[in-house]
Specification:
The complex is a heterodimer of chains A (about 200) and B (about 500).
Chain A lengths: L3 H11 L21 H14 L3 E2 L8 H8 L10 E3 L8 E2 L14 E5 L2 E3 L4 E5 H4 L4 H4 L2 E6 L4 E2 L2 H6 L8 E5 L4 E2 L7 E2 L6 E6 L2
Parallel strand pairs in A: 1-12, 2-3, 2-4, 4-7, 5-8, 7-12
Antiparallel strand pairs in A: 5-6, 6-9, 10-11
Chain B lengths: L12 H5 L16 H9 L2 H23 L4 H17 L1 H14 L3 E5 L2 H14 L4 E4 L3 H5 L2 H7 L3 E4 L2 H8 L16 H11 L9 H18 L2 E4 L3 E3 L4 E6 L3 H7 L3 E7 L3 E2 L5 H12 L7 E5 L7 E7 L3 H5 L15 H5 L1 H6 L10 H11 L16 H5 L6 H14 L5 H14 L2 H17 L2 H4 L21 H8 L13
Parallel strand pairs in B: 1-10, 2-3, 2-4, 4-7, 5-8, 7-10
Antiparallel strand pairs in B: 5-6, 6-9
The chains are: A alpha/beta (about 200), B alpha/beta (about 500).
Chain lengths: ~200, ~500
């Protein structure tokens, strides 16, 4: 059996013997809208293509009302709504030491996104937002609160951030889970959530 | 990854009645006969047509998304340069990755080959009393024969990616790195699921079938003792790794059980997190034409109270790094773009390669795993270069395919008929006079000889395609002599 030292020695002996420097990578985002409204519009366009929904709150509507209105057709009566955010109470709190298995019956989970990416319509979570990582996948539906001011241009900018560099777990969600493994027919709701709805909340 | 594909399927009713093709796979110690297996695949014309349509649709969506990005070609250059930099400093970055991962509380293991990998993971499972495992798709674990090994030691492995699960339940290899069951039609899936998970045999609706798998798999996910994933990238700077999927199954596998084991090929290293911008922007666009996979997951440390293991696997990669003509194949990010564009792959289906890696990338990876077994594969190419043109990390795939033919010939790994005809062709091409005589007589032969002399057993290609008609103007050489050459010119080859 070859261990660490043997493998590293083989690499040192075999690696191509020329110096190749790491290139510097531009941000490629000069052409993005400069204003927040423009970035939001770009974000929504891609989000919807990726199967996600943008739910604009109506005047004087609570956030929970926006959620219930948007998911009205999808939630059963007495739906289990698990919240990780202060803005919406739901009927179950997700707590840090919850066993992931106890979340198997969650109909909708509510999460706060760290930021969004206009290029891809993605939202970012770490374990700080998820509280229990599995909630983002065991829930049938996902509702995401996103501050429109936290939408950045593209993936180069996303990876230049260092606010999540030390997170144990960081994930970009882009729409709901999906598959097209059977004859290329697109099915939204593969193994993870069946829908993803974003509510703009500053 | 698995594939969202917005094009709806329109296969005909007769497609549902056609039996699924089962191309032959070489047994232990045998040579895979790609030509024969491809022919077996083509004996199911509805399947062959559906396969071609599916994978070509992926290529077309890749083109459409690429055209929307002005910097596309620059991104390919950057990706290639980052990989060159990483591979020429692989020892340093690999150490940095392993040390950072260990500092993050991850258990890091090193596996020299497939057997080491399987044994190491088995040890981890034994230590934790693991009997039931859920896993996401990993080509590396396919390469290691991992599932087969675990069956032998009584550990139950459940694939969670839909396509991979279909293949597992059907006891068949995956045929494509991104869409493992792309060669199957919905009627085949209905048959497999009715036989294995009790779905309605007469319902072949894709939504129904996907729902059946979801409902059947969810309890297995909740019941598993451990979860496994592969990795698309390993970031030296953070000690974390990145997994790109669409179904959410990798995140379930990693986050529901307490124990997460990730198998990672040593070539997956990138130096910094900011490098990921380049690769994430290229990967799903090249694979499926979507701007990003539904999930891009970064695992840096175990969840609170959880345990995480990484197995770094060499399995021939350090050796390939020293091969002057082939080391750059280690840049591959497994997007499958080369497969989707390859005329041979599209028409012969992945199973005909009889290997873990299929299509053009298989032609350059498989022979380094087993030169004899896969010695036919580098000939399953027209060398049209399309694979090279779509490769997001700019591997010169078609040149490496050609180079493999040369290497295999020198190693005496090429079948006798191919060697003889190539040797004859080589002598002919080196001698212009003989060449022109041969071309003329071949043309005459084409006109007058019966098919059996041209389409004989020695000529594999003649069996599946017609020779072109002889042009009325004769050969190019005749035409050139007549129309372009001054009387005092002598063709170069005719000079004494």
């Amino acid at each position: 059996m070859r261990g660490r030292n043997d493998i590293l020695a083989d690499i040192r002996r075999n690696r191509p013997a020329f110096a190749a420097h790491a290139p510097s990578v531009p941000y490629y985002d000069d052409d993005y809208p400069q204003d927040s409204a423009g970035l939001v519009a770009r974000f929504i366009e891609v989000l919807e293509k990726m199967g996600g929904a943008w739910a604009e709150p109506r005047d004087s509507e609570t956030h929970e009302a926006t959620l219930r209105r948007t998911l009205a057709d999808r939630l059963p009566e007495n739906a289990v709504i698990a919240s990780t955010v202060p803005e919406i109470a739901g009927n179950r709190r997700v707590r840090r030491h919850d066993d992931p298995h106890t979340l198997h019956d969650v109909d909708a989970a509510i999460l706060r996104a760290r930021f969004g990416v206009a290029e891809t319509g993605s939202v970012c979570f770490t374990e700080k937002e998820l509280i229990v990582n599995a909630i983002g996948y065991l829930a049938q539906h996902l509702v995401v609160l996103l501050d429109p001011a936290q939408i950045i241009t593209n993936m180069h900018r996303a990876y230049a951030r260092d606010d999540y560099k030390n997170a144990r777990y960081t994930v970009f969600h882009t729409g709901p889970s999906a598959t097209a493994d059977i004859e290329g027919v697109l099915v939204r709701g593969a193994q993870g959530v069946r829908s993803l709805t974003i509510i703009p909340v500053g | 990854m698995s594939a969202p594909d917005p094009i709806q399927s329109h296969n005909s009713p007769q497609a549902a009645r056609e039996a699924a093709p089962r191309p032959d796979k070489a047994g232990p110690g045998e040579r895979q006969d790609h030509r024969k297996a491809a022919k077996q695949f083509l004996n199911s014309p509805e399947h062959a047509k559906s396969h071609d349509t599916r994978v070509w649709a992926m290529r077309q969506r890749r083109d459409a998304t690429m055209q929307g990005l002005d910097e596309w070609e620059e991104l390919r250059d950057l990706a290639s340069q980052i990989k060159t930099h990483a591979l020429t400093h692989l020892d340093e970055y690999l150490e940095q990755f392993a040390d950072n991962a260990a500092a993050n509380g991850v258990h890091v293991h090193w596996a020299g080959d497939a057997a080491d990998h399987n044994r190491i993971v088995h040890e981890i499972f034994k230590d934790h009393g693991v009997k039931k495992v859920i896993k996401s798709k990993s080509m590396l674990m396919e390469e290691c024969g991992f599932r087969h090994y675990m069956e032998g030691v009584g550990i139950d492995i459940v694939e969670t990616d839909l396509g991979e699960r279909i293949q597992q339940l059907d006891a068949e290899d995956p045929s494509h790195v991104v869409v493992p069951s792309v060669h199957k039609m919905r009627s085949d899936v209905a048959e497999v699921f009715s036989r294995t998970i009790g779905s309605d045999p007469d319902n072949d609706d894709a939504h129904y079938l996907a729902g059946q798998q979801r409902n059947h798999t969810r309890p297995l996910i909740l019941d598993a003792d451990a979860g496994m994933t592969g990795a698309n990238f390993a970031v030296a700077e953070t000690g974390g790794f990145v997994v790109c999927t669409n179904e959410g199954n990798a995140d379930l596998s990693a986050n529901v059980p307490n124990l997460h084991v990730a198998s990672i090929g040593i070539e997956k290293i990138v130096p910094t997190l900011s490098d990921m911008g380049v690769f994430i922007r290229l990967l799903s666009r090249s694979a499926l034409g979507s701007p990003i996979t539904q999930y891009t997951s970064h695992f840096r440390a175990p969840k609170e109270g959880g345990e995480m293991h990484i197995v770094l696997v060499d399995n021939g990669r350090s050796k390939r790094l020293g091969e002057d003509k082939f080391w750059s194949s280690l840049k591959c990010i497994r997007c499958g773009a080369c497969m989707n564009t390859c005329p041979v792959f599209r028409r012969s289906g992945g199973l005909s390669y009889g290997a873990t890696y299929t299509g053009p990338l298989g032609l350059i990876l498989d022979p380094s795993i087993d030169a004899y077994r896969y010695s036919n594969l580098p000939f399953a190419s027209t060398l049209n270069g399309s694979c090279t043109n779509v490769c997001p990390v700019k591997i010169n795939i078609h040149e490496q395919i050609f180079e493999w033919r040369r290497v295999l010939a020198e190693d005496d790994q090429i079948p006798w008929t191919k060697r003889k005809s190539l040797a004859a062709a080589g002598e002919l091409l080196a001698n212009p006079k003989a060449y022109r005589t041969a071309v003329k007589s071949a043309h005459s032969a084409l006109k007058y000889l019966p098919d059996w002399t041209v389409y004989n057993k020695l000529n594999a290609w003649g069996q599946v395609r017609d020779f072109p008609d002889v042009p009325a103007e004769g050969t190019f050489h005749d035409w050139y002599r007549k129309n372009r050459m001054k009387n005092d010119d002598t063709p170069a080859g005719d000079k004494p």
